[in-house]
Design a protein that fits this description.
The structure is a single chain. 43% of the residues lie in helices and 17% in strands. The chain is α/β, with parallel strands linked by helices. The longest helix has 19 residues. It is globular and about 55 Å long.
Length: 298
């Protein structure tokens, strides 16, 4: 039995699709099962509720061989630690109690880097990994840079103003990764019963691009000028607060970007095993462009 958390999210949904193709029995944890595609609901066992809830994970992990673990966004959390480690604590107890063999978790680059000590969301994510690893379960922490798909949060600005912004220099080259490649990696590990122990697995896209490089690629694909505009840290934080994020989580987001600007995502050498197939240009063609076109008035 494989348990999938966040089965309606961008990564969890794709991970679930891959695992279902294998024919393995699957159980999902979902607050709202109606958000699952109808043909999926017929093929999985559903445990209703939040995977941060003790009773829910206790029910879901009973008899499970492997678990896909992803902490959902918690923009109003009182701290990054609460959003990651505290949310995960009931699951850690349930993993140990039910003797789950393997867990594949979504984490971040930064393990071993000096920048990780005060990297906000990344620091909290690494603490989550430590919590899971300490249970005795075999664990693979998928360590990611920024997601290409996160640019979809700025799709209106990209379409209407031809600009996107983040609190980082425009010329700093960084890895990034498509969520579909994260899901494929997660599913492969979930379906492989031969690995053991605790390891961090970097998951890097094939390109190290600056955001100015990305703007040039977007210009080519979208057929119009695109520009990256760095945003001061305090202005970035203010924007998050205006959108309803808590003070602690807004600061944790900013701290993460400060750490990225100091080389957090560049500390891991690229290897063939860590390199995923989707280029940023391909992602723009397959994901960004259709979203932009869909918003063009008829």
């Amino acid at each position: 039995m494989i348990v999938i958390t966040t089965p309606t999210g961008s990564i969890g949904r794709r991970t679930l699709e891959h695992v279902l193709e294998s024919g393995e029995p699957v159980r999902v944890i979902a607050r709202d099962a109606s958000r699952l595609p109808e043909n999926t609901r017929d093929r999985v066992e559903v445990v209703k509720g939040s995977h941060g809830d003790r009773d829910v994970v206790d029910q879901a992990f009973a008899g499970a061989d492997a678990v896909f673990w992803l902490v959902p966004p918690s923009p109003r959390a009182t701290s990054a630690e609460a959003a990651y480690a505290d949310f995960t604590r009931p699951a850690a107890h349930a993993l140990k109690r039910h003797g789950v063999k393997r867990v594949v978790g979504i984490s971040a680059l930064g393990r071993g880097s000096a920048c990780a000590a005060n990297a906000g969301l990344v620091t909290a994510s690494l603490a989550m990994d430590d919590l899971i690893g300490a249970t005795g379960v075999s664990y693979r922490a998928l360590a990611m840079p920024s997601f290409m798909d996160n640019l979809l949060r700025q799709v209106e600005s990209i379409k209407n103003q031809g600009v996107f912004s983040l609190p980082i220099r425009g010329d700093q080259k960084l890895p990034s990764v498509a969520t579909r490649d994260i899901a494929a990696t997660a599913a492969r590990l979930l379906l492989d019963a031969l690995w053991s122990g605790v390891e961090t697995v970097p998951v890097l896209g094939p390109d190290d691009l600056s955001y100015e490089d990305m703007a040039r690629v977007m210009s080519d694909v979208l057929g119009k000028p695109m520009r990256f505009q760095p945003i001061p840290g305090e202005a970035f934080k203010a924007r998050l607060l205006e959108r309803g994020m808590s003070e602690a989580m807004a600061q944790a987001n900013l701290d993460m970007w400060v750490a990225k600007s100091q080389g957090l995502d560049n500390a891991v050498p690229r290897t063939p095993e860590a390199t995923t197939p989707t280029t940023f240009r391909q992602w723009c063609e397959d994901v960004l462009k259709p979203r932009i076109v869909a918003r063009v008035p008829a």
